């Protein structure tokens, strides 16, 4: 089966003939493939004997879908895509189009406004108690992942170091808050920076031996470190509570002025004469994580245009060239590791304050993989792309939980969220097929002489570790 | 860029003594001694596989030599033993910059950004190792503007100013070569080591390269150590030529002297037909690293 296409318009009849041919071929292929799998079904009859029956109708549907699908793709979609590409090439427009509409230009402002207004709008629509689900599951949950992915982006997207154990720093942050607040009774606002510093410290300690490795080796060792931290948390029972974890972690307060503890005299709801609800705490947390995300974004953007950030990106492009320019690559890598870890630590302490409970369960490798997937899907290095990827991926997962109606389709024991990994995988494959560089594949230069032109993803590299 | 030192001091900037480099059983460099003089273009020539790139890698710290001593005399009187420094320190402290036989640009960064990365150490210091720069204290802003200005100067010299905001990977080959040289110059070197800068260039690009190299020597006083395959380029621009064959020095002197040295002619043209064919073959193949 050849995919050779004559792109010009005059070849249209040829294209149709080709489409029919390929459609038929696909149909025959599908028939051959599905004849035994779909066309024939085996089952046990009442006597427990294995018998078979045919399902010609279903087989016909399979074959028809394949044949018609192939016909449409070859006959209509491909020529159209080719034509569009040709027109683009003729007009000299690069793949990344520069024409920006109102929405595009003011994207950041609109997004900010929407995020700030999100809790009040939800409260006014669903009531205080009803807003809980939206603010917590959709708002806070997504923003935590946005922050984690932005933190990991410094390491993977900018410096090009493949870190598969990022969740370790998230854990360090969470346990730092949990343990220090229980032992010393320190408040969230004191411990938040401390958790970040501790995580950065661990980032440097882990980074020192590891960063001499490159590529696959680095990935494997960081993965191992992630697991080691988790195993320590699981087995050092006297301190960490083992698999049972730590519960009853203090809540964050509004800078010590209002508290969210039910018994406290300065309880937020009581002070304002509002009915008791945990929703206020969640709304408060929403703004806290939103602020944390903004700080992360601000620092990342600032650092990118500073020498250190440029060195990170240069490191991703070519480590040897960096060294030939007098850049200490080990130190540069360590700073990337430390900064990324610090953001992970912030997110971790926030997570602990939000849950009121931490256990090693929350810091499994799968979390690292999800965060990394978000970074890759978003387009390595692009904050906007990563935020979109986090919304799609995490929001999508939460949506699955909501899809009760699927139970009516697939039966009572169908739990849709169990399929989230499958969907994650499918989304990954789809994005990598159509946008191999992620949602936002181009990179914004950090300095320019005449005009800022975004750099197409085909020039940037992913790094070698 | 260093302040224009117009008085050409004739002293030695780089001294290589009894340098040897062994790869397993292969003696890639065997007891090589050579000198490069300040303010001059010194060329290192020889057939493919003679060990030229290996010499460069030893000088710039990418290989640790098996034996020998490499001394860099800086303008301010500092002496550095290069075999004891690691690769990035050689650029940072001893002020030796290099380019690569197979161009190594940051292809996803713009041309301008490539030149800014080269000024990393200076800018890091000015930004108080990022902390002060992040808080907006200190001289970072001024220094950052200065670094863009320096980059602009080099872009003009290298005739790349129109492509300043394009990705480096998008440039034609000759422009990439010039960019790599401009980038090395932005580290402010006293000695610039160029590994086959003319390889693969068309005659026009080759000419532009010669202009750039001459202007580097004459306007900045930077000494140049140059590996070259193409004899015509070497003869045109170098002040001093060292010829290498099988890791050993076979001739050393002015271009005229070297050109007429029977040993060099034998090395380049071969003594019998077999070798001649081999040399021709290598000439056609161009470079390798
Ligand atoms: N890293 C290395 N490992 C093993 N052999 C090497 C290495 N680098 C260079 N060589 C060998 O050293 C010899 C000199 O190579 P090179 O310096 O690249 O030659 P030139 O640059 O003069 O063409 C060659 O035989 C080459 O195969
Ligand atoms: Mg070579």
From TrEMBL, chain A:
Molecular function as annotated in GO: branched-chain amino acid transmembrane transporter activity
Locations listed in the record: Cell membrane
Transmembrane segments: 23-40, 56-77, 107-126, 138-156, 161-180, 186-208, 215-233, 239-258, 279-301, 334-352, 364-397, 417-434
Membrane topology note: Multi-pass membrane protein
Coiled-coil boundaries: none
Gene Ontology CC annotation, any one: plasma membrane
Ranges where the High-affinity branched-chain amino acid transport system permease LivHM N-terminal domain occurs: 19-117
Main location: membrane
Alphabetically ordered keywords of this record: Cell membrane, Membrane, Transmembrane, Transmembrane helix
PANTHER family: HIGH-AFFINITY BRANCHED-CHAIN AMINO ACID TRANSPORT SYSTEM PERMEASE, HIGH-AFFINITY BRANCHED-CHAIN AMINO ACID TRANSPORT SYSTEM PERMEASE PROTEIN LIVM
Record-given protein name: High-affinity branched-chain amino acid ABC transporter permease LivM
UniProtKB/TrEMBL annotation, chain B:
An annotated GO cellular component: plasma membrane
PROSITE patterns for this protein: ABC_TRANSPORTER_2 (PS50893)
Matches recorded under Gene3D superfamilies: P-loop containing nucleotide triphosphate hydrolases (3.40.50.300)
GO molecular function: ATP binding; ATP hydrolysis activity; L-isoleucine transmembrane transporter activity; L-phenylalanine transmembrane transporter activity; L-valine transmembrane transporter activity
Biological processes per GO annotation: D-alanine transmembrane transport; L-alanine transport; L-isoleucine import across plasma membrane; L-valine import across plasma membrane
A Pfam match: BCA_ABC_TP_C
Span of domain ABC transporter: 14-271
Protein name, per record: ABC transporter ATP-binding protein
Keywords: Amino-acid transport, ATP-binding, Nucleotide-binding, Transport
Membership in a protein family: Belongs to the ABC transporter superfamily.
